[in-house]
What does this fold into?
Amino acid sequence: MKRRDLMLAGAGTLALPAYLSLTSSGALAQGAGRTLLLAAPGTPEGFDGDALRPGTQETVVQVYEGLTRYGRTERNGRTYLNPEVVEGHLAEKWAVSSDGLKYVFTLRQGVKSAYGNELTAADVEWSWAKSFAQRRTGNFIANVSNVTGVKALSQREVEFTLNAPSSIFLSALTLYVPGIYDSTEVKKHATAEDPWGLRWMETNTAGFGAYHLQSVRSGEQAVFVANPNYFGRKPHFERIIYRAVPSGASRMTLLRSGQVHWIDRPTVQQVLDMQRDRRVKVEDQAGRAMASVRMNCAMRPFDDVRVRRAMNYAVNKDAIKQGVMLGTGEIARSIIPPIVGGYDPSFFVYDHNPERARALLAEAGFPNGFEVELLFSNIWWWEEPMAVQLADQLKAVGINCKPQRITGSDLRARGAPARQDMALFTFEDGPIVLDPVYTISLLARSTGVSNRAKYNNPAFDALVDRARTNPDKAVQAAAVKEAQRVWMEDAPWICTVYPQTFEAMAPNVAGWVPHPDEHERWVDLKAG
It folds into this structure.
């Protein structure tokens, strides 16, 4: 087949590589050049896993890999992660002290970055020191895992010190953050003002994973190439073109016509349409991140729990599931998603009840309701229809809710721990470790990095800490159960739906393995 030139709405012209061949149906041909064309809403705005911006998580998971990884299992012809099994990855083995407070990891030999530098214990120590210093996502991972220190003992041995036993520590090490960096390379770009090379990381990567950033042009595309020194199985795709296509409709059209091979975050309506199209393959998994509306517990009127409960009673969750999610997904009845162990829906009481909502508003001093802005962005496809439908439902109890779109970057920045200045806004957060203690620590503990609504209840924090530090599984389970009850009574979010996750790809792209962060791993994919 001849090379095609592809016009992308609002994103310029992309000439497909001459060596990339396409079948008449648009599918990637067997024996073709090893380039995967991927259409996403935009280009990544940075490559530091400790400073998540739009597109960051989707791509850093391809570059930075963990000391450990989950095992894998086969079900109905598909491969899934097995969170019950944690095995070595960048580390080949580890030893644990009798009190569970020290772990010594032996790094795998021959692990090299794309720059040719071999992984050492000093890289691990430097990488965790970076996250400690930034006091963001990686620092949260350290805190929730009880890690207080990381020290290189030799070229290949690194020691982790914990302040209490941790049930989630080994699982947390499967994550992309704290990323394990090629510190030899990053240090070349550090300065006195920027000792961790964060400015350089805005447009560069330096990991030991399967892929490496070759180039990025903001608003156009990022190009990734396979790490030629990768220690694992050689990736099928040698090159990934991550193209910015802001329009979801355009992304779907490009996939159907065979001009791209993977699209990011299709809507449910697009998924239902594409499931009937033989030119496209759609696969799915249960969601682990709630499509929620957050109420800032430190801002009026949401500092009153009666108002927060009223908002929950006012919203018809079944109507949201049908009208926004088109019948897919699962009604959210706990802060812990159904796919995570310890999920308990028994404390959910917020079935649609406008009369109860009006009574609570009157008790709180708002018999005639109030006015509030509902901020949403374009990060997730469901945000605008959700905001519109919520505004309509809230009118029935006297609340004049005005949907207002802001950029994804602004929504993330304004929901960050240091700011959190929005009263009412849409957001989707979920655990990237499939563990109930991690989940409640992340989303609702007062210091959780995804506690974007300033929820702060010392009793809840105490339950999280009990579950986090007690090695007794029964104590952990009881604390997790009680924490779900307290959180539901405090009602800091309007619970709606756990959306189902869908991936849409060319018919002969195979190998997708669902991950808890809901991002594919390019190293798993192949053209069959």
Summary: Residues 1-32 have pLDDT under 50 and may be disordered. Residues 231 and 479 are 41 Å apart (CA to CA). The longest helix spans residues 473-490.
